[in-house]
Amino acid sequence: MNRPHFPVLAHLSANEFLDQYWQKQPLLIKHALPDWTLPLSPDELAGLACEESVESRLLLRQLGDQEWVLKRGPFNEQDFTDLPPDNWTLLVQAVDHWVPEVRELLNEFRFIPDWRLDDIMISYATEGGGVGPHFDNYDVFLIQASGTRHWQSGQLCDDRSPLLPHPDLKILAEFKTDQDFHMEPGDMLYLPPGVAHWGTATSNDCVTVSVGFRAPSHGEVVSDYGLWLNDHLSDFLRYADPDLKAPSHPAEISAEAITRVQEILKQYANDPEQVARWFGRLMTEPKYPENAMADLEPVTAEMSVADDARLAWYQSEDLDTVYLFANGQDYALPASLKTTVVAVCDNRYVSASHMENLSASERESLTALLTDLVENGVLMTAE
Ligand code: SIN
Ligand code: CO
Hints:
The mean pLDDT is about 95. The chain is globular and about 70 Å long. The protein has helices spanning about 15-20, 40-50, 75-80, 100-105, 220-230, 255-270, 270-285, 340-345, 360-375; strands spanning about 25-30, 55-60, 65-70, 90, 115-125, 140-145, 150-155, 180-185, 190, 195-200, 205-215, 305, 310-315, 320-325, 330-335, 350, 380. The longest helix has 16 residues, at about 360-375. The strands form 4 sheets. It has an 8-stranded antiparallel sheet with strand order 1-9-6-11-5-4-2-3, with helices on one face. Strands 8-7-10 form a 3-stranded antiparallel sheet, with no helix packed on it. With about 375 residues, the chain is α+β, with helices and mostly antiparallel strands. It folds into 3 domains: about 5-215, Cupin (Jelly Rolls), CATH 2.60.120.650; about 220-270, no CATH class; about 285-380, CATH 3.40.366.30. It starts with 13 loop residues before the first helix and ends with a strand. Cobalt (II) ion binds near residues 134, 136 and 197.
């Protein structure tokens, strides 16, 4: 799977990009995808935005009073007919879940771990359209698929950055332009989290493809691991103080008490296998669990991973166990199945060859795993 070169990065190697730009500074790559054409038309994108199970937004800019109007999908034909000729944008989330050719674009970004991926969002804008000055907590690669757009990047923001008063939108009240980027089809702009940015369509038919990568907040890491531990630990494991000394002030929480609590927390943070088992589940939870559909077909020789399925794996430190994580589930497997697990995750495909040269018990474990993955909507019969 180690690919020496990723064409989207032009002259940079994956490690050069990661060292110099990833989570550090914006980067414009002209002609990053010179031959790539969007595999769906603006009408098909609008069609997706009319589907109940697809997340979409329309953002209109009313220039007179500088007001931004947000409408959430699903939309109908009339919603599009009612739009003004310019200054609006349609944004459709997770198009990679619905259009296999869009999902294929993700192969160009496998210099970032799969489990960091959020989704591919596609926006269509008329001249003047955009989502306004804002920042995201995620890394994003913005690919210009058609038309032209003027991007500006600005200051580094955080939760203290002032926002315009709006019930649903997080539009920055201040924007200090640092760099300007004039994007043409095939160009790509990388933006790290927190960097203010503002994209305005400078033509009609301006289509931007956002490949977004997510990162859990510290609060989410600590609280989600806490919930997982609560489900897995015996209630008999308790704070203990057999070394207690009589306090001079009974209401005081002593430094020793805090040290004992810290020891409890450290004990669970210091167990890599436990952390990995929980983290793999968290990072492969489906984006839209309600959309996960089980294939009713039985396990067959050739199966592909569903476009919306998230996969990851981890090998235990003692090398005895390989954990496969799929859509928020974890499967502990013997290390002898590692090659199979890695191949399935790398290629997002299961072929008959994976059953070859296995012992009877390995074959049994693999069949049970594949059956479960089919039932959970992770695998489906290859077309
Ligand atoms: C857009 O495509 O208009 C917005 C993308 C972004 O700013 O993250
Ligand atoms: Co953004």
